[in-house]
């Protein structure tokens, strides 16, 4: 059941009151975020329109770290009431006063606000917090983050793909602990590895035909041989994201032309800034020999690289586009959002972080297949994206959501070329605010169900 949690000025200490519960047994203990508190409970007099728990200011501060009313779900276990769920967002911490979680800070604040209404208590944990049983909680009224101690989330969603090297080892250990305890509901970190994901997906006959030929290179000499044999490929770091370090390599006679994007505003600078400036320049170079390719390999600092056949993308006004399907995982996966990503003319990638723009997917699917076939084509894209989710859930267990990147060739053939275990929401901000909000609310609803509070 879902109940409002309200602060009552007339209550003191651990005295609480409840209303609107009919014949439910009153609690003498409250369990929240792994903490048990003994309470003295009475029924609130008068006509109650909604179910509510009234607590003193002191108890609200001690138990919830909150100074305002909000909503939580309740699991009644006799005289013990478990309140929740407490949903942890696991992310890297940055040395920034107003953006301590980088570009995800705003999304975390929105999730906290929506959670207050839907009945999910949002906290953020960074490397070291799991061991310390501490977390950051957002106060929407004061617009500040405060620290809560001795708190254990019921469920945790990893929101950072790659952690700063000074935090990486601690993050790895804590995420492994959370997974072992069954609390981590994001695909494991190794699923951020494009090569590992490709091998899992290609094991499924339903998906194999929709995957571009992909290999793994470990040297410049091997890369030279691959490009000369395959003519047109994309080269990516296995753990890369947001269009960083992506190279388009094409065979031109006996040489190789390399195109790549260089950020005008460094990616590391943008993480600390509220201004999103994805401006890039496209640079090219020519490689003529295996020795030159080895020198190029060393400059990129790649130890391994995924080499993927180039898929010819459909274009709109000379601009290539592909798609991001945001899918929530469950017994029957649900497509939460469909976005077309339109790159700049001559761009190497369509990624939003390298200057791409977000558009409604249906409009651009229609440009390829026509008005009469657009619904069937989108249904097929839904089917493939859902099959990706089911395949990975069968392999790794329960997780909340996934971003599936799809390509649609001019002939209408669909390819799956990338999967994002921690999909962002920036592209949804470029579309309808309602779509972005719906995607965040769906994430919260997943957490409520997965923790057993949704019954």
If you had to describe this structure to a student in words, what would you say it looks like?
The protein is an alpha+beta fold. Among the domains are: 2-84, no CATH class; 86-184, no CATH class; 213-310, no CATH class. 29% of the residues lie in helices and 31% in strands. Strands 4-3-8-7-1-6-2-5 form an eight-stranded mixed beta sheet. The radius of gyration is 25 Å and the shape is elongated. The protein starts with a strand and ends in a 5-residue tail after the last helix. The mean pLDDT is 88.
The parts where pLDDT drops under 50 for at least 5 residues are none
Class inferred from helices and paired strands: alpha+beta
**Overall geometry:** elongated
Strand content: 25-35%
List the strand order in the largest sheet. 4-3-8-7-1-6-2-5
Count the DSSP helices.
Answer: 13
In total, the number of strands is: 25
Backbone CA Rg: 25 Å
- Biggest sheet, in brief? 8 strands, mixed
Mean pLDDT: 88
Q: In angstroms, what separates the terminal alpha carbons? A: 7 Å
Helix content: 25-40%
């Amino acid at each position: 059941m879902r109940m409002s949690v309200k602060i009552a000025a007339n209550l003191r200490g651990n005295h609480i009151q409840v209303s609107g519960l009919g014949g439910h047994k009153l609690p003498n203990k409250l369990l929240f975020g792994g903490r048990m508190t003994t309470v003295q409970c009475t029924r609130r007099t008068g006509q109650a329109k909604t179910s509510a728990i009234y607590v003193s200011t002191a108890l609200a501060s001690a138990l919830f770290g909150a100074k305002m009313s909000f909503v939580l779900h309740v699991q009644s276990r006799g005289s013990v009431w478990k309140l929740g769920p407490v949903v942890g967002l696991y992310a890297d911490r940055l040395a920034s006063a107003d953006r301590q979680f980088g570009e995800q800070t705003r999304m975390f604040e929105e999730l906290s606000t929506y959670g207050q209404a839907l009945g999910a208590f949002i906290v953020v944990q960074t490397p070291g917090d799991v061991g310390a049983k501490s977390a950051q909680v957002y106060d929407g009224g004061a617009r500040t983050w405060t620290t809560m101690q001795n708190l254990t989330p019921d469920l945790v969603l990893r929101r950072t793909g790659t952690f700063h090297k000074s935090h990486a080892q601690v993050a790895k250990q804590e995420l492994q602990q959370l997974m072992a305890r069954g609390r981590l509901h994001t695909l494991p970190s190794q699923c951020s590895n494009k090569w590992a994901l490709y091998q899992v997906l290609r094991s499924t006959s339903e998906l194999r035909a929709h995957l571009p030929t992909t290999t793994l290179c470990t040297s410049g000499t091997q890369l030279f041989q691959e490009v000369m044999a395959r003519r047109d490929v994309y080269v990516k770091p296995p753990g890369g994201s947001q269009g960083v370090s992506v190279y388009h390599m094409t065979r031109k006679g006996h040489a190789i032309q390399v195109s790549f994007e260089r950020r005008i505003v460094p990616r590391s600078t943008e993480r600390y800034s509220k201004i999103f400036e994805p401006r890039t320049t496209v640079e090219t170079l020519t490689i003529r020999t295996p020795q030159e390719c080895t020198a190029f390999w060393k400059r990129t600092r790649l130890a391994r690289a995924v080499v993927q056949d180039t898929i010819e993308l459909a274009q709109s006004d000379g601009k290539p586009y592909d798609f991001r399907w945001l899918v929530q995982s469950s017994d029957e996966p649900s497509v939460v959002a469909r976005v077309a990503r339109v790159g700049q003319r001559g761009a190497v990638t369509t990624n939003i972080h390298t200057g791409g723009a977000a558009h409604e997917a249906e409009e651009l699917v229609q440009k390829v297949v026509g008005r009469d076939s657009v619904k069937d084509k989108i249904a097929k894209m839904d089917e493939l994206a859902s099959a990706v989710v089911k395949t990975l859930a069968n392999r790794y267990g329960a997780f909340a959501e996934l971003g599936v990147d799809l390509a649609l060739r001019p002939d209408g053939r669909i390819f799956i070329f990338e999967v994002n275990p921690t999909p962002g929401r920036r592209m949804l901000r470029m579309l309808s605010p309602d779509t972005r909000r719906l995607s965040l609310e769906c994430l919260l609803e997943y957490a409520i169900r997965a923790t057993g509070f949704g019954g």
